[in-house]
Amino acid sequence: MKKVLSGIQPSGQLTLGNYIGAMQNFIKLQHTEECYFMVVDLHAVTVPQEPGALREQTESVAALFIAAGIDPAKANVFVQSHVRAHAELGWLFTTLTNMGELERMTQFKDKSSGKDSVGAGLFVYPALMAADILIYNADLVPVGDDQKQHLELTRDLAHRFNQRFGSTFTIPEPFIPKVGARVMSLDNASKKMSKSNPNVGSFIALLDPPDVIRKKISRATTDSGREVKYDPANKPEISNLMGIYSHCAGMSLDEIEAKYDGQGYGPFKKDLAEHVVAVIEPIQTRYNEIRRTGEIHDILKQGAERASLIAEKTIAEVKEKMGFLNPRG
Ligand code: ATP
Ligand code: LTN
Q1: Which ligand ends up closest to the CA of 196?
Q2: Please, where are the H alpha helices in 177-250?
Q3: Most CB within 10 Å of its CB: which of 10, 75, 216, 290?
Q4: 195 in active site
């Protein structure tokens, strides 16, 4: 059994991009592997969050994990800040990470560009992410394509620690879907769909009411012409919508092309909206039930307890190897 770990930030409402790029693999892997899925609130605060909204979104994201199909009897679901060792190991990893490595991270460049005030946490974020993964000695990390670079750095840090202080960490592998690893914005297919985009029309949130989903898809930007053809270089907008269609309807790209041959974008978009709604609606029904019962609190408590046992062991070993004095003598 492999160890699997991943996290999603409570920095807004989860999108169809998060679902297709990451969560669908969480759900798949839980049946065969030992899984740890967390809501990474310590990462979310690397950009300003309003306290009330952060609390609500953290609970909401955790409830959506369960509503989307993560079974708490199979996978450990918890909140990152409930397991203190993450922050502690994250700090230790900032001391092993070079400034140049962090300066190269495209997520940092994207999120800091054009801002006059950028928190230092945003810069050292990848060291905390490495700690999240290595503290459980995860073998596999299911993520979307945008996290590949952070995973590479995690692997480098694990090697570096092992070399300096003796073999300690497993070197993790990314686990990235073949189609859907990068779902793009509905208003601009050169940008990834992102929950913190201020234009709400650019993403489909898992909690958007069905009519809002229909409206967003009908307004999604399309390329010139009218042919439903998968051609990311020349028809990026329609190819992105076809990728979403393929995931939600369980049809191949060829099948979709054949189905809409000669029909134009209109009927394609209409059917796409219904396929997306059919995936999202049952998740929303379960979500409302989970929020109503309050069961998520127990799930998170148990998840954090189980995760802490492992995380505490790792941090003790790391501190011993790095030369920190043991408080118990
Ligand atoms: P933010 O906008 O706050 O940066 P985000 O929507 O990009 O958030 P994250 O919490 O950073 O989402 O990512 C959670 C997981 O979802 C990661 O594994 C990430 O790779 C994946 N993911 C995020 N956006 C997409 C997308 N558009 N397509 C595919 N996977 C995605
Ligand atoms: N950086 C990730 C979120 C994240 C994560 C992790 C993903 C934080 N810690 C550990 C996988 C494993 C992002 O999606 N922006």
Answers
A1: 1
A2: 210-219, 236-249
A3: 10
A4: yes
Please write the tens of the pLDDT for every residue from 9-23.
999 889 999 999 999
Known catalytic residue at 319: no
| CB 244 within 8 Å of CB 276 | yes
Substitution site in 15, 16, 18, 143 for ligand 1 pocket (most atoms within 8 Å of beta carbon):
18
Taking alpha carbons only, the member of 42, 37, 43 closest to residue 23 is: 37
Flag whether pLDDT at 257 surpasses 90.
Answer: yes
Q: Name all domains of the chain by residue range, CATH numbers in brackets.
A: 3-176+294-322 (3.40.50.620), 200-288 (1.10.240.10)
Q: Which helix (H) or strand (E) holds 108?
A: helix 106-112
Best residue among 9, 46, 146 to mutate for probing ligand 1, ranked by most atoms within 8 Å of CB: 146
Whole-model pTM: value is 0.94
- Give the separation between CA 123 and CA 111, rounded to whole angstroms: 10
Distance CA 316, CA 300 (A): 23
- Can you tell me the distance from the alpha carbon of 91 to that of 83, in angstroms, rounded to the nearest whole number? 14
Determine the pLDDT at residue 162: 98
**pLDDT score of 123:** 96
pLDDT category at 116 given cuts 50, 70, 90 is confident
Q: What is the mean pLDDT of residues 260-280?
A: 96
Residue 6 binned pLDDT confidence (cut-offs 50, 70, 90): very high
Question: Catalytic annotation on 192?
Answer: yes
Rounded to the nearest whole angstrom, what is the distance from the C-alpha of residue 232 to the centroid of ligand 1?
20
Please list the residues that pair with 298 across neighbouring strands: none
Ligand 2 within 6 A of CB of 60: no
The CB of 192 under 6 Å from ligand 2? The reply is no
